Amino acid sequence: MEAAMSRYMLLHIGFEMPTPEIMAAWNKWFEDVADRAVEHGGFHSGAREISHDGVKDLPMEAGSITGFSVIEADSLDEAVEIASGNPFIDSIRVYEISKQG
């Protein structure tokens, strides 16, 4: 029996207004990783941060988390390799999702 692949969360960091060229590059990446993708989504407004100091609104700026992808891969190294093909703005953070329960 083949072992199940692990899931990885890719957090997309950085913001700039998307041009048709940027959108085309993103759409190509989504197509390229479709067999590994579990889910994709974006954050474009309305973010807040909760801390012990209270709640504050988060502006959409260069260092913002602007989207996420959940992919399946055999290892963190493979997840990083898959993420490296993404047309990211500033950076991508890759985290292994641990199963609870």
How would you summarize what this structure contains?
This protein has helices at 20-32, 76-84, and strands spanning 6-13, 37-42, 48-51, 54-57, 65-73, 91-97. It has 101 residues and is of the alpha+beta class. The protein has one domain: Alpha-Beta Plaits (2-Layer Sandwich).
Characterization of the model:
It is a single chain. This protein is α+β, with helices and mostly antiparallel strands. The chain has a single domain, classed as Dimeric alpha+beta barrel (Alpha-Beta Plaits). 22% of the residues lie in helices and 38% in strands. The protein has two helices and six strands, in the order βαββββαβ. The strands form two sheets. The protein has a four-stranded antiparallel beta sheet with strand order 2-5-1-6, with helices on one face. The two termini are 22 Å apart.
How much of the sequence is in beta strands?
35-45%
Helical fraction: 10-25%
Described by the principal axes of the CA atoms, the overall outline is flat
CATH top level is: Alpha Beta
Structural class: alpha+beta
Distance between the termini: 22 Å
For the secondary structure, the number of strands is 6
* CATH-defined topology: Alpha-Beta Plaits
What composes the largest sheet? 4 strands, antiparallel
